[in-house]
Amino acid sequence: PRLRRFRTPSDPPAWKIDLVNVLDAVSGRVFVDRYHAVTPGVAELYAKAYRIRTSRISVVERGRPIDSLGDATTERRQQVRSGLGLSIDDRVVISAGRHEHQKNHIGLVRAVAEIAAVDPHVHLLIAGRDGNATVALRQEIDATPGADRFVHILGHRTDVPDLLVASDVMALSSVFEGTAGIALEAMALGTPIVSTALEGMVGILEHERNALVVPQRDPSAMAAAIRRLLDDRALADRLAAEARSDFLDRFTLERSADRMVDMYRRVIAGH
Length: 271
Known about the structure:
Elements: H1 14-31, E1 35-37, H2 40-50, E2 57-59, H3 66-69, H4 74-84, E3 91-96, H5 105-116, E4 122-127, H6 134-143, H7 147-150, E5 151-155, H8 160-166, E6 169-172, H9 181-189, E7 193-196, E8 212-214, H10 219-231, H11 233-251, H12 253-268
Helix pairs in contact: 4-8, 5-6, 5-10, 8-9, 9-11
């Protein structure tokens, strides 16, 4: 569901969003036996938006084929950095996703700018296609002193796993997400994560256990969390290890497929 409080400048008028949600809720009550949500947080959003009982919602988390992601080796890390013109001593933050307002890349640029003001070795990689927020993002970069040195707009990339291996931190700055695929891939590859607090990611990223979670639209909080992981290798390694353990237990493609089949069997059986 698209909730009004998550509207972006490119969204249709609020009344159209409300109408679609009402139609979905009514048709769902009549025609839908079971809803599928990709996280516990998304299940809560469904329940609120469509006014349905959570017992009608099955959570089956998305999966990623871990074999296709490759291994996080030192050689791979060095090779990717060399191709980007970065040294092994640089401190690299990555974000990936289409340039849309909900991704809040502008806030992330501001966060990394705070770090860059005292750390000349920090770099921000933004991988993703142009979108509705591209013009505003480039205007922010142009208006930020020194940003042309530390912000790298990479465009659409098919090698995001390589970029994750090359990075010290994966930053998720969104104001709305379901399951962020980049977060699952970071978990699998052992790249430490800083994320905004997202209802859709509830039950996946847990503050101080497998990630650092900060308030939305707070560049200074994002900057402080990124610096913690850059400066405290032991903390970064601990969070990354917990995240990878969670991935192997819950988010492999095989695990996701098994749970989806089980959900269909239960629906067919009327459970």
